[in-house]
Amino acid sequence: MTDQQDVFEPDQSIIDNSWVSDWKALEEKAKADPVAYWEERARELEWSKPWDKVLDRSDTPFFKWFTGASTNIVTNAVDRHLDTARRNKLALIWVGEDTDEVRTFSYFALNREVEQMANILLSMGVRKGDVVTIYLPRMPEIFFAMLACAKIGAVHSVVFAGYSSEALNQRIDGSESKVVITADGSWINGKVFPMKQIVDDAVKFSPTVENVIVVRNTKSDVALDSTRDHWYHELCKLPIAKGKCQTVQVDAEDPLFILYTSGSTGKPKAIVHTHGGYQVGTYTTLKQCFDIKEEDRWWCTADPGWITGTSYVIYAPLLRGATTFMAEGSPVFPYPDVWW
């Protein structure tokens, strides 16, 4: 280890081909009129109804963005790509922990998976504003689940897939979740982490959970409660999972998801993010700060159980029409240079 810091200086060709060729000028423009700056960014996305006001400061500190507008983050993350050549490009590349299993999904295929999951949730009575807790490892189904919730106007609450049953229970009961989506287990450092068992303990006395959807991942033997639990692959075979599913247009200020704080300084706190402001913010940062274009392949190593993963593994790359990469388990298993 040394104190030396390497600074990458891009050459002029990189600067000329980036989204932001003059960062200082952009910064000054945004400072001079931040409302106009964010309105300009928002116009790069699709809205089913335009906003009356970009920023409502009437109830500070509870600022409201794009008031009066209607949208849905899935419209911009998935639907709008289906009418373009991007429908056939890769949206997601996933690699299992042992690196032997690879799953890929084009934007068209991703949409079919999202519609399937959304139809299943609708069949369970999940509607706009209902909360679904997602306790899944880094696997393609976490994309399907989050996007399916957003598509039908439900609110997803992703819980980090290493938390205990007690921590999970706090977040399930605190959000009054109707459905929990989990897996039989997850791989971490070559060993199985018993996710379904943790969910069983967490929902044992939950007054709101009506259904638990279980994704087969590790092929572990798990207990199923016939009155509550459902194998996801079996649900996918049923007529309820088939057919198109329309994306529900919601108010820009309607909740998209809840993420709980870690609780390291007290009881975990539920942080709510909305469709309108969140999609504009994440879309813009990936474009301007990271210079990601639709032909790029992007890997963020974060977990969707935290805001970085939710934003820069799931939503932002799809909003940009790029290809996002995800790997399950430990990033240094079975050996540290597996990254490369």
From TrEMBL:
PROSITE patterns to which the protein is assigned, alphabetical: AMP_BINDING (PS00455)
Pfam families in alphabetical order: ACAS_N, AMP-binding
EC number(s) given by UniProt: 6.2.1.1
InterPro entries: ACAS_N (IPR032387), AMP-binding_CS (IPR020845), AMP-dep_synth/lig_dom (IPR000873), ANL_N_sf (IPR042099)
Sequence ranges assigned to domain AMP-dependent synthetase/ligase in this UniProt record: 86-340
Cellular component, GO, one term: cytosol
UniProt GO MF annotations: acetate-CoA ligase activity
Domain of life (superkingdom): Bacteria
Signal peptide: none
GO biological process: acetyl-CoA biosynthetic process
Keyword set, alphabetical order: Acetylation, Ligase
Family: Belongs to the ATP-dependent AMP-binding enzyme family.
PANTHER family per record: ACETYL-COENZYME A SYNTHETASE (PTHR24095), ACETYL-COENZYME A SYNTHETASE 1 (PTHR24095:SF14)
Protein's recorded name: Acetate-CoA ligase
Organism the protein comes from: Cutibacterium avidum ATCC 25577
